[in-house]
Write a structure and sequence with these properties.
This protein has 481 residues and is of the alpha+beta class. It contains 16 helices and 21 strands. About 1% of the residues have low confidence.
Length: 481
């Protein structure tokens, strides 16, 4: 059984919830056993980073390429490694740990949940897991995450009188089948996902488990669903001018809610005809990833403690807005999202882990930057983020920034070669003789002279633009199409 479990883990890639760690270091190509103290520090760095974020699994004795090399340590050294999270972290961390023998090789497996505190290495730094990296936390972020963790209690609460039988066992089985998990369901939900309290005679689910898998979610949370409203025109009207065209209420466990909502809303995303390569093509008015990511993020990150409000999706002729109860948690700001920074903090880490393993959330912290890229590639304005009262909103507009000919011309320059400032400048130059000056770039991109100079030099080196004359401050675009 242990061999099957390890084989299943090795089918997955390193990421937010999984890491492999070698017991060897390689100098001049030759493997050398790491010192026990060094390996112990690496273990607690990764585990504390996972605990400070969303939890996860660490498999020690496996290389980055997933080859199993084992841990060549004696019994006493293995015990010291197993106790390292308790001895080297403050406050001590107590992950579920397992000593596994695979043939002649010894492995260690650790599973840790999201901690309600910030765990730091004794006398040292604090770490945080983001995608497949575990960087140290700056001092100001430590304080922000400490404050934000005070808001993550709701999904861990035990609902009065809730038992294992309140969960839809078919949904639980479908989830375990999807992640190819063969262990007993109660054990998996309790140990790996921290959704059940197995200490009772009849296992008791917490609120996260009920929101994800309950037979009747509204019994436990009256407004955990989604309200979709389609309006005629570009703004809401009331009274005699009421302009509601369609209203749909989606209720159900979260593992089913996203697919049902997305499937129905797809029917209302219009297609528009564009001219491409001398042929007329049909294209959706919004990039699929952008609006679906807004829906998934709302389900994963809304504040479920605000039990009197639902997620709302408002669709108008010229825009769609996804409204989510709860402001962004303290480490995440509107400005960071507008600047497309890779940021990640889960208000609902237990829910997030299940949704991530189901494939709804992929690269943590990368969803918002990709929304910008998708809207840009469609020639649309960037996503808009705003707050009003206790509601956080994401708005996507379908009016194109460029005509189809300009967009086709712009898309010859890949996102890996030009940033959004440079792309904005290229669009301006396209409409002005395909030339521009340094001063125009400063004005169009809203940057200082030094930034403009660096960006332009990058485009020159990339073969995108060239000076009109030697040492000239005016440039022309090198045609590719």
């Amino acid at each position: 059984m242990q061999g099957e479990e390890i084989g299943l883990l090795l089918k997955h890639e390193r990421g937010q919830f999984l890491e492999f760690l070698s017991a060897y270091e390689y100098r001049r190509g030759a493997p050398n056993k790491k010192k026990e103290e060094e390996l112990g520090r690496e273990i607690v760095r990764i585990l504390s980073g996972m605990a400070n974020a969303d939890g996860g699994t660490l498999l020690v004795g496996v290389e980055a390429d997933k080859s199993v090399t084992g841990i060549p340590y004696e019994h006493d050294e293995l015990l010291a490694l197993l106790k390292a999270p308790q001895n080297l972290l403050r406050p001590p961390l107590n992950p579920a740990s397992e000593n596994i023998r695979l043939g002649n090789l010894q492995l260690l497996k650790f599973e840790v949940g999201s901690s309600l505190e910030i765990n730091r290495i004794a006398g040292g730094r604090s770490y945080y897991r983001i995608a497949a990296e575990t960087p140290s936390l700056p001092a100001e972020q430590i304080h922000s995450i400490k404050e934000a963790k005070k808001t993550v209690f709701y999904e861990r609460q035990q609902a009065l009188n809730a038992t294992w039988h309140d969960l839809d066992h078919d949904l639980v089985k479908a989830f375990l089948d999807k992640i190819q998990e063969t262990r007993e369901p109660q054990s998996v939900l309790a140990q790996s996902y921290h959704l059940l309290d197995n200490s009772r005679a009849l296992p008791a689910p917490n609120m996260a488990a009920l929101l994800l898998f309950a037979k009747d979610t509204t019994r436990w949370h009256p407004r955990c669903g989604i309200d979709f409203v389609k309006y005629q025109g570009n703004e809401r009207q009331h009274g005699t001018a009421l302009n509601v065209v369609k209203r749909i209420r989606f209720d159900g466990p979260l593992v089913r809610l996203i697919d049902e909502t997305v499937g129905r809303i797809k029917e209302h995303i219009r297609e528009r005809t564009i001219l491409h390569d001398l042929f007329f093509r049909e294209r959706l008015e919004y990039p699929t990833f952008a609006w679906q990511e807004a829906v998934v993020n709302a389900v994963a990150h809304r504040d479920y403690a605000l039990s009197g409000a639902s997620i709302e999706i408002w669709m108008f002729d010229d825009h769609i807005t996804v409204r989510s109860p709860g402001l962004p948690p303290i480490p995440v700001s509107l400005e960071q999202m507008r600047q497309q920074k890779s940021i990640h903090f889960s208000r609902n880490p237990l829910i997030v882990r299940v949704l991530a393993d189901m494939g709804y959330l992929r690269e943590m912290g990368e969803g918002v930057p990709r929304m910008f890229q998708e809207m840009e590639s469609y020639g649309l304005n960037p996503p808009e983020f705003s707050t009003a009262g206790f509601i956080f909103s994401v708005t996507l507009r379908n009016a194109p920034v460029y005509d189809d000919q300009a967009l086709r011309w712009l898309n010859q320059f890949s996102a890996s070669h030009v940033n959004q400032r440079q792309r904005k400048l290229l669009a301006y130059a396209y409409c002005h003789g395909k030339t521009f000056s340094t001063t125009e770039y400063e004005r169009i991109a809203e940057v200082d002279r030094d930034t403009a100079y660096r960006d332009i030099r990058h485009m020159v080196k990339s073969g995108i633009v060239t000076p009109l004359k030697p040492k000239s401050r005016r440039y022309r675009i090198i045609e590719r199409l």
